[in-house]
Amino acid sequence: MTVDAQTGHRNEKHGDNDVPVNKITSFNGRLNQYFHNTKNVVASNGSSTVKDTLKRDSSSQEQSENDLLDNDNGSDGSSRSKRRKGPRLATATPTPEESPARITRSRSASLLQTQSPQTFPITRSQSTTTVATTTTTKRGRGSRTASQTSASRSLLRDTIPRNLTLLLVGVNPGILTGTTGHAYAHPSNLFWKLLHWSRITDIRHPPSDTYRLPELYNIGNTNIVERPTRDASMLSRAEMDAGVPVLEAKVADKKPEVVCLVGKSIWEAVWRVKHGRGIKKEEFKYGWQGQGENMGVCEGWGGARVFVATTTSGLAAGMSIGEKRAVWEELGSWVVRKREEGKQGRIVTGVGEEGCEFYSTD
Fold this sequence. Notes:
Elements lengths: L1 E2 L6 E2 L15 H19 L2 H26 L31 H10 L9 H12 L10 H4 L16 E5 L4 H6 L10 H7 L15 H5 L1 E5 L13 H18 L3 E5 L1 H12 L11 E2 L16 E5 L11 H23 L3 E5 L5 E4 L2
Parallel strand pairs: 3-4, 3-5, 5-7
Antiparallel strand pairs: 1-2, 6-7, 8-9
Helix pairs in contact: 9-10
């Protein structure tokens, strides 16, 4: 570097060994910087053989770069598998003082990957990801968790005082019913609506009035299976059949006047146990059943008459609401007559075919 005496400007001249600053960050600049350092080493050693070797090495590198460019441009298909490889010769490397090591982003990433996992602490985001991965489970189509399918214990209790006018028998508690202890608690269930529509109850009671029905209307409630499930289709036939003798014992002990089976599947289970076979299509009917089908028959008592009502579940779409109301209103008309005649002082001694009643007067 020289200074002009007249103008005062500095004149900078680059020698053969100097590398322009504006080319350091470029590709060619880095190569020139590399060769610039090696030339200094060669000059210090004073060996011409190493210079020739470096020239051959640089020419081979330029040729390999040209081959790579040709491969990228697709000019020669055969060059992809056959690349020129120049002879690898030991070259002198610059010292840290001459060329300080630069850690780039790609190099730092590779260093992080090669490090042991115990070297770096687990951050909050990494721990959150790990917890989410371990807690996530693969769920197949139609699979349900244990809380969705059934509960281990139901809080619903039987309400069966002695000498009830009507005992309502359901299939089994639903999940919400088993959790709250209130019969037919799910909002989609039509049980409490049908009781009111058929005039069995004076008002539409909420499920929380389950245990008030005996004192208000002399009506009780029980189920053929105690295990709660999301819907009755999750019960096996063996569970249904096993509940029939238990139900018969309850009826024989408490002696209700009429037993209403809330659902076709309950009557099918009772029929299988009593007759040893499944009920035929032409044998099934809703409403009053024959006196030969009375439940709870024991010594000194002829048993309770059976009325088969429709299911009240909102999941059952086999019958319309109008058809369900027609069946329940048949039972409701008997309950209303029973209630009015009881107020007049007449005592019902029994129920005959098709709901006909026998009275005695004092």
